[in-house]
């Protein structure tokens, strides 16, 4: 396999390391990588534990990606004959990299979408889906919104809903509620994702579906208590707007109620900042030469994400004591028995948790955050097995639709592989 990454960061290093491991195990040969970056020296910092991977890797350093997008033929030598182009940079490059993949007859994958736009909310479609026909015509696939959530969570939801279709009685899904936990206990303020991105996302009014209607509420204005499996505390979770809402509504239009909530101490910090009005775009400095808002000041002074080496040092010194990511989908089901006209309601809970974060120090993934690690593992596993079964796939594909395309045995293999990377799969009928 030959893989191109655009942008190198915490998640990219996890995906590439996993792909190499999977290739060595299943194909007996490491993958050949090309990393398209703006700064080779900074990019290589993310692989300080993976010197073997760099032996089968090349780097293409460019001033900016736009140079490639505008003149792809200039880079034919570097970009031809690759199996997949992966956008591990900002979602704003999704369409450009997709078009580049089509130019070089390659498959495509990305990690997230740019959804905080009016046209996305109006259409309830992702920008990447505009290239559906082009990928189908070339018999290529484009996997979008990969990772742990969205990504593996959608995959598990899709698998369970697909299995419900085979039951010998009428089943109606009345609600899907996805709850995410992001919890870290440390002596210092440490962010597991970009604070700038988080501020923009959490300041956006939460959206959810109720009785098939799109509803909007004020950020952090509503919460509910939720008990995550294995996690010792009951916590408050708050509605937020992420890709899962659009994706699940597209794939399962008959489900009238869909909601996504997030909780944990990282979100509690953001709630406090929001309630102190520190996300405000109101200008606190305004003159002829510049305009500075409270929001922009907070984004600049809030602690930045740390390098992998610093994160590893924090774990060694026990600055980071504990961290856990969990994602649980509660699927509300109504079963009808035609003979006696009886209806039974139940909740099927499925999802995953990752709590062995400090154990990563013993692995090539040391230095990952507790969010970038499961995100990269989830994306990497779905990408690897999609490439193995690429003859089954074409067009733009959402993660929840993969289980119906794959066989049951392959779906089980994917879940077992997640388990081998310390990600626990959870399933219970309530």
UniProtKB/TrEMBL annotation:
Residue ranges of domain Saccharopine dehydrogenase-like C-terminal in the record: 147-402
InterPro entries (alphabetical): Sacchrp_dh-like_C
Domain of life, per lineage: Bacteria
The protein's name in its UniProt record: Saccharopine dehydrogenase-like protein
Source organism of the structure: Aliarcobacter trophiarum LMG 25534
Lineage of producing organism: Bacteria, Pseudomonadati, Campylobacterota, Epsilonproteobacteria, Campylobacterales
């Amino acid at each position: 396999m030959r893989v191109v990454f655009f942008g190198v960061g915490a998640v990219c290093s996890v995906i590439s390391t996993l792909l190499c491991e999977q290739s060595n195990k299943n194909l007996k040969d490491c993958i050949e990588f090309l990393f398209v970056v703006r700064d080779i020296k900074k990019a290589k910092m993310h692989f300080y534990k993976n010197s073997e991977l760099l032996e089968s890797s090349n780097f293409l350093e460019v001033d900016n990606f736009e140079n490639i997008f505008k003149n792809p033929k200039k880079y034919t030598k570097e970009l031809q004959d690759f199996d997949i182009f992966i956008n591990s940079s900002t979602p704003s490059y999704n369409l450009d990299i997709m078009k580049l993949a089509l130019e070089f007859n390659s498959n495509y994958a990305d990690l997230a979408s740019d959804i905080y736009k009016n046209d996305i909310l109006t259409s309830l479609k992702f920008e990447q889906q505009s290239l559906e026909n082009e990928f189908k015509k070339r018999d290529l696939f484009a996997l979008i919104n990969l990772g742990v959530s969205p990504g593996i969570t959608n995959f598990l939801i899709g698998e369970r809903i697909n299995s419900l279709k085979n039951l010998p009685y009428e089943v109606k899904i009345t609600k899907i509620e996805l709850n995410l936990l992001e919890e870290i206990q440390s002596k210092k303020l440490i962010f597991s994702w970009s604070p700038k991105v988080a501020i923009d996302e959490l300041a956006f009014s939460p959206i959810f579906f109720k009785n098939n209607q799109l509803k909007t509420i004020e950020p952090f204005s509503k919460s509910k208590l939720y008990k995550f499996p294995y996690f010792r505390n009951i916590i408050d979770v708050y509605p937020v707007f992420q890709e899962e809402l659009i994706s699940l509504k597209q794939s399962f239009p008959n489900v009238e109620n869909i909601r996504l909530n997030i909780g944990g101490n990282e979100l509690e910090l953001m709630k406090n900042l929001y309630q102190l009005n520190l996300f405000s775009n109101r200008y606190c400095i305004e003159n002829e030469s510049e305009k500075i808002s409270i929001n922009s000041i907070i984004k600049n002074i809030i602690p930045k994400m740390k390098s992998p080496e610093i994160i590893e040092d924090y774990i060694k010194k026990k600055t980071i004591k504990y961290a856990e990511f969990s994602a649980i989908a509660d699927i509300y089901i109504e079963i009808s028995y035609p003979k006696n006209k009886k209806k039974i309601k139940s909740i099927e809970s499925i999802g995953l948790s990752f709590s062995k974060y400090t154990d990563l120090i013993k692995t090539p993934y040391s230095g990952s955050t507790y969010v970038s690690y499961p995100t990269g593992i989830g994306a990497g596993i779905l990408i690897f097995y999609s490439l193995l079964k690429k003859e089954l796939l074409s067009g733009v594909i959402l993660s929840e639709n993969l289980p119906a395309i794959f066989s049951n045995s392959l779906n089980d293999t994917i879940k077992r592989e997640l388990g081998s990377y310390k990600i626990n799969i959870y399933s219970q009928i309530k």
